[in-house]
Write a structure and sequence with these properties.
The protein is of the alpha/beta class. It contains 12 helices and 24 strands. The strands form 5 sheets. Strands 1, 17, 18, 19, 20, 21, 22, 23 and 24 form a 9-stranded mixed β-sheet that branches. Strands 2-3-4-5-6-10-11-16 form an 8-stranded parallel barrel, surrounded by 7 helices. It has a two-stranded antiparallel sheet with strand order 7-8. The radius of gyration is 24 Å and the shape is globular. GO terms for molecular function: diaminopimelate decarboxylase activity. InterPro entries: Ala_racemase/Decarboxylase_C, De-COase2_N, De-COase2_pyr-phos_BS, Orn/DAP/Arg_de-COase, PLP-binding_barrel. Its cofactor is pyridoxal 5'-phosphate.
Length: 473
């Protein structure tokens, strides 16, 4: 890789969908939208959402597999996306009482919904039973609660069992969710099979991380359990392999590699910092040596979305000697997935207004935005995409400057991005900063109203650039 000048800014150019490019070209519309909706505002579109559903369906159809896509609603609270998934003939994965209730009130039938909530209290289970929603059972306490409800009401409930404890290369894949495979078999054959009101419909798992071999091993071991259940006279209608499908956010591999290289050099003191106060983004420096890797999402990757799914399905499991798609098709099982982030790829941007410029005690330019860091936050140590600076200043005055974006919370740590970014020119009050591709987890998952700040408004953009309010959180 060609050496980079020690003081040079490290770009991370995002992929931008055509609908976003068209919107960004209309500066007046952006400014009017922020003025009407206040800052920040989340502007979203269902067009990429529909395109992403279609990508997944093409893979399933390529292998002639029965399938169902359940949009993981927790990734974005806007009901518009849940309704779009249902309108496309797919389903919605709900993770709370409010998520489930809103979907039902929106007219989405119970058989297009599943309940995967990590905590399922009695009211939530009762609602799911009443509306004939498939319930994903994770532990015996959930099972006992459901058992008491259906017995008391003499009501039938359809359930799927969450399983875990898969092994790979002799090691167990760690998880806090699900029943071990042997316990699942025992529960299904000894209790659920004989239950007067519970109807077993399938198996479910969700793996953390993005390892293809782990997914393949988990599916193969699930199929072994399905075969064992079939031998006991119990049919499995579906296998749900969860979510966690990669998204590629960045346009250039070399930029991604350069960032990692330069970050490590900066933390080691071999070049100027590229993060605020030389934040190592999860790495640890001990006795002059770096340990670990940045705890960030793989923002550049070459197996995104449907390509990731196709790689799983085409992989061969050593215990069967067949590709995964053949194992599933031979058993006539409906394969289910629960994508969230990947269905929302390119479906939204967050726009915020510049309210101040200043320098900190070390001379760093700080640009204050009318938002807070929870409105641009996920589990990744930083959001590693270049934001876009929209200014009405004359192009003659424009000369790029580097600095940091800060938000409204009264904390030293209130940085919207830890990475130093480059502005089109010295920012002016009222300029706009656009964070691209934020619909999946970034805009809603951790948002907070501390300081009594209002939550961001959510609007949708039509193909002809009409801005409309969404229809409920």
């Amino acid at each position: 890789m060609k050496p980079i000048a020690k003081d040079k800014y490290i770009p991370l150019k995002p992929i931008i969908h055509p609908w976003i490019e068209k919107l960004l070209a209309d500066k007046d519309l952006l400014a009017d939208t922020v003025k009407q909706q206040c800052s920040p505002v989340n502007i979203q579109s269902v067009t990429p959402f529909a395109e992403n559903i279609a990508e997944y369906k093409r893979v399933f159809e390529q292998y002639e597999l029965k399938h169902k896509i359940f949009f993981a609603r927790k990734a974005n609270k806007c009901l518009t996306f849940a309704k779009a998934a249902a309108a496309a003939g797919e389903g919605v994965d709900t993770a709370s009482h409010k998520e489930l209730q809103q979907c039902l009130e929106a007219g989405i039938p119970g058989d297009q919904l599943i309940l995967t909530a990590a905590i399922k209290n009695i009211p939530l289970i009762e609602l799911a039973v009443e509306e004939h929603v498939t319930i994903i059972i994770d532990n015996m306490d959930e099972y006992d609660s459901l058992d008491s409800i259906v017995l008391a009401n003499e009501t039938t409930a359809k359930i799927s069992l969450r399983i875990g404890g898969f092994t790979l290369d002799g090691k167990t894949l760690p998880t806090r969710f699900g029943f071990p495979l042997d316990e699942a078999y025992k529960l299904i054959t000894e209790q659920i099979k004989k239950h007067p009101f519970l109807r077993f419909s399938g198996l479910h798992f969700h793996l953390n991380g993005y390892a293809i071999d782990q997914r393949v091993a988990a599916i193969a071991q699930s199929i072994k359990l399905i075969d064992d259940l079939a031998a006991a006279g119990i049919s499995c209608e579906h296998l749900d392999i969860g979510g966690g499908y990669l998204v590629n956010y960045l346009a250039h591999k070399k930029e991604w590699e350069a960032f990692h290289q330069e970050l490590k050099q900066a933390v080691l003191g071999q070049r100027p910092a590229i993060t605020y106060q030389n934040d190592p983004l999860g790495m640890v420096l001990i006795d002059g040596k770096l340990h670990g890797e940045p705890t960030v999402y793989p923002y550049y990757n070459e197996l995104p979305k449907a390509v990731f799914l196709e790689k799983i399905l085409s992989s061969e499991d050593v215990s069967y000697g067949q590709p995964i798609h053949e194992l599933i098709k031979a058993r006539n099982i409906e394969l289910r997935i629960e994508p969230g982030r990947s269905l929302l790829d390119q479906a939204g941007i967050t726009v915020a207004r510049v309210v101040f410029r200043k320098n900190d005690t070390e001379g760093n330019l700080l640009v204050g935005l009318e938002m807070n860091r929870t409105q641009m936050k996920s589990s990744s140590a930083d959001f590693l995409l270049d934001p876009i600076h929209i200014t009405h200043q004359s192009t003659e005055l424009q000369e790029p400057v580097d600095g940091y974006l800060v938000g409204g919370y009264c904390l030293e740590q209130e940085f919207l991005l830890k990475r130093k970014i480059q502005f089109a020119t010295y920012p002016k009050i009222g300029d706009l900063i656009i964070f691209p591709n934020t619909a999946g987890y970034m805009m809603h998952f951790f948002e907070s109203q501390a300081h009594q700040f209002a939550l961001a408004n959510n609007v949708f953009c039509t193909a002809d650039l009409q801005i409309t309010k969404h229809d409920g959180d």
